Amino acid sequence: MPDLNSSITAMLSEAREAPEVVARLLTSNAALCRDLGERLRQSPPPFAVTCARGSSDNAATFVKYLLEIHSGLVTASVGPSVTSVYEARPRMRDALFLAVSQSGRSPDILNLAQAGRDDGALTVALVNDTASPLASTCEVVLPLHAESEKSVAATKSFIAALAAGFQLVAHWSQDQELLAALDTLPDVLAKAAAIDWSAALPELSQANDLFVVGRGVGFAVAQEAALKLKETSGVHAEAMSAAELMHGPWTLAGDHFPILVLSQRDETLSGVNDLVTRLHEQGIPVVVAGAAEGPATVMLPSVEDVHPYLAPIAMIQSFYPLVNAIALARGRNPDNPPRLRKVTETV
Ligand SMILES: N[C@@H]1[C@@H](O)[C@H](O)[C@@H](COP(=O)(O)O)O[C@@H]1O
User: Fold this and answer.
1) CA of 53 to the centre of ligand 1 (A)
2) Which of 48, 137, 175, 305 is the most exposed place for a label (fewest CB within 10 A)?
3) pLDDT at site 3
4) Cβ neighbour number for residue 31 with a 10 Å cutoff
5) Is residue 149 within 6 Å of ligand 1 at its C-beta?
């Protein structure tokens, strides 16, 4: 088996910091989340809005699923152009407005956040740079506590954003099971960081195209894995819901177009298992991570007995050493992808 830890890039060493970042975040933000949760219980918002780009938008999608499944709150990802380019003013009064960003500096994100605040939404920034304009634009700041991240590919800050959103939902609902699961997250991440996904390297490092499949709460990390494959490894990877895949796109997959499936043990599992079986029967190379059973070309190990809402966070942690190794195998430097900079500002 190839050793995924033989080349330590900034990306890999920052990814390894995620368990301690999350431990720090959970302690530091607990009182903030309790207060915010109390406020949300006193004045339940009619809906939620998310505002983010790139990896942060994928983290926002994770929070959207938690809010919709667990809190029953319809959550819309509003395109920043709606306010920043079209200068439209959609009604956001009393909504919970969640802006997610590492730098907190992109003008379009700031514009939408200001529009939310001006219209009377409860604006909350999940942001790493607490000295950023986004932190001053929003009423409440949940710092990501990821500290400095040098690699262009976000890792620990992405996991921190997932954890921050989870913590908010857990404290808001005061659900004891979720709160107990939250306490286990740093340990789960430490175990996930030590899990070896090198068995997937031969299959995935050869591909120029692939689908990353997730469903429900796992969809956001499928999006993030696909984005990381694009950015770091030059692979045209597309995230797809397990259901969406069947409505057409799976016709593209085949010998040189494998599918990576990220699955968790919840109500989505039987459908994902059916999908894996069908793909395998069709001779499509499938790499399976998480709870799904196969049969598959490659079955990857995962942290056992993990809460289904935490499983996606654990899987992206285990994925980072793999994608780092895929990038290196393809002759790329994951810390410095062509044309990319750490902070991207769009209007
Ligand atoms: N979650 C969505 C993204 O998937 C989409 O890319 C973006 C478009 O934003 P814009 O219209 O500003 O380009 O809106 C939201 O953030």
Assistant:
1) 7
2) 305
3) 78
4) 10
5) no
